[in-house]
Structures are given as C-alpha cells and as structure tokens.
Ribonuclease T2
Amino acid sequence: MKLVRHFDHANVTILLNVTLLYFRHMWSQLILTQHWPSTFCSMEHCDPKFDYWTLHGLWPDKGHECNSSWHFNVTLIQDLLPDMQKWWPDLKTPASSEFWQYEWQKHGTCAAKAESLNSQHKYFGKVLELYHTLDLDGVMKKFNIVPSETYYAFDHIEGIILNFYNVKPKIQCIHPEGGKVQILGQIEICFNSDFQLTNCEHSETDTLNLIDFLNVKGTAFSVCDHATPVYYPPLKGEPSM
C-alpha cells in the first residue's frame, strides 16, 4: 500500500507540474490588429485598393508557432473566403492565401490552445466576428477621424477609441526621419480569454518591433508618440478631406 501511495503521489506531482507549465504558457489576452492599407503600401510599394481598415491578425500575448505540424488548409475555411478576401486581404498579393497561412502558423496555432479557437475554422471565423463587432473603421468615421492632408493630434485619435470602447488601445505609426510628423499605420484592440474587451498591455509582440510577414525588413510600426502630429494618409486618387 505504501508503494501505491508513493506512486499516486508522484503521478499527482507530475500532473500538477504539467498543468502549471501549460497555464504558464497559456495566453491571457488576444490582440486584434488592423492596419491602414495606404500606410502599409507606402512601405511595400503596393497598390492600396482598400479604403477601410483591414485585418492584420489576432495574436495571443504568449507564444509563436506553437505547432509546426498543424498545417494551414484553405479547404477548411472555404465558406469564410469571401469575407476573408474582403476584410483580411493580403495587401501585397490579393489572390494569395500565403498571408493567412503565415498568420495561422505563427499565431493561430497558439490561439488554438483555447477550446473556443481549437480549429482553423474557429480561429478565422472568430477573427472576422471580432472585426465586425468592433467596426473600427465605422467608429473612426462616426467621430470624423478620416484620411486627410490635415494632421491630427494623437491624443484626439486615442481618446475617441478609448472613450467609445472604454478600453485603452495600442496605436502604432511609422516615424519618418526628421520627426515632425508620424504616419498612422496600425491599431490594436485587445480581448481577454472570454472575448471581452480589455486594456492592451505589454506583450511579446512589443519586443518584435512588429517586423511581421507584411513588413519590409528593417521597417516597422512602433507605438505612436503622444506629442507628434499624426498623418492619416488618404487612399491614392481619393480627394483629401
């Protein structure tokens, strides 16, 4: 009986250690990231065909490429493709699914640690759902934050988003040499594990300089400066406000 008790105790200890290790590496926050096509294409020399904020991804605050053997399969999300192509396009190669593949391998396989996101269809479907629920583009327009040749105060843009959603976003810009103006590029809005809005906090993505699949090597979005005017560039060919 003593041997049995010792064996059971050892098993319980192992189980507890494995459980603790799992939760230590389990994400607690999801970062829904949208970027402004005109700004992105100014870096990538692509042709921005979208005059609204498009999806970059949904990123857990912990983990990258959590399961390299879980390969992206576009046939599993066929019913989502019309929405994906419209709201989550590859700005460089619109006809390609390579961008979604990259986002799944890097971020989706980590998000999938949660049962609510544990398939490709659940992950991509939830990203689209959160994107439409936020309607960031509509909120910006509602409060007259529109692409313009006139610069905005950063605090004005941040204040509109903070007051509407009642959480603090993370807003990123490009910082051209000279420092007289910064270019609005990317906005992160965060959710907890129950998909409730929460303040965006420090995460692993901060240390990556946001040099992601879509960015030119050495070019990155970084957190906007509160004191520097913000340029929100219009789509090429559109009249500025």
Q: What stands out?
A: The CA atoms of residues 27 and 169 lie 18 Å apart. Helices lie at 2-24, 37-44, 81-87, 98-111, 120-134, 136-142, 154-165. Residues 1-7, 12-24, 204-211, 213-218 have pLDDT under 50 and may be disordered.
